[in-house]
Amino acid sequence: MAVLDIRVLGDPILRERTAPTPRVTDAVRALVADMFETMYAAEGIGLAAPQVGRTERVFVMDVDDNPLAMMNPEILARDGSERAEEGCLSIPEIFGDVDRATRAVVRAVGIDGKPFEVELTGLAARCVQHELDHLDGKLFIDYLSLIKRKFMARKWEKEATNYPDFIRKLEPGKPRSRRSRSRETSPGGTDEPFEPEL
Ligand code: ZN
Fold it and tell me: What is the CATH number of domain 6-179?
């Protein structure tokens, strides 16, 4: 297992649409294991293959200690709507309000190669919608108003200088920011509002 580099906004791979992955091979299983390790190292709750420079149609997520790996996922049903703040491991320090369905029924192939269906609500439903967007080359900032996107672009211009060649190298054990530290110190991470990074 290995912690992979994360691609940040500006890397063209984040805008590419992935094609269905035909089979769960050893290479896919190794990728999924590395993606889980990378997601935990980055203190995120979701991570999609394009974020680590790969084109497999797969993502991993872990909300409320429920790790899930989904290959070729599709949303069968969704309902409800909630606006909440979101972040993205590929756009560090940028956050914005996004409307998402509050419930989603998802069908995917697991790393055992078997199809499964799962019903997700709340933050887990938000996460699956965010990750599925990644597999279609879409980012949460696409949902923001023009004014917010302009504001974000200015902030990102400065932030992006921390990531030469659009590469974010993770340093395990090193607190990333004030936000992540305050998250770690709140029991279960749920007492205070926080911006999930996916
Ligand atoms: Zn993301």
Answer: 3.90.45.10
Ligand 1 centre distance from Cα of residue 185 (Å): 23
| 195 assigned to active site | no
Would you list the domain boundaries of the chain?
Answer: 6-179
Beta bridge partners of 83: 99
Ligand 1 mean position, distance from CA 42 (Å): 12
Query: For residue 96, how far is its CA from the centre of ligand 1 (angstroms)?
Result: 12
What does the block give as tokens for 179?
């936000």
For residue range 54-69, what is the model confidence (pLDDT) as tens digits?
A: 999 999 999 999 999 9
CA–CA distance, 193 with 124 (Å, rounded to integer): 16
pLDDT band at 191 (very low <50, low <70, confident <90, very high): very low
Q: How confident is the model at residue 194 (pLDDT cuts 50, 70, 90)?
A: low
Phi first, then psi, for residue 194 (nearest 5°) are -140, 160
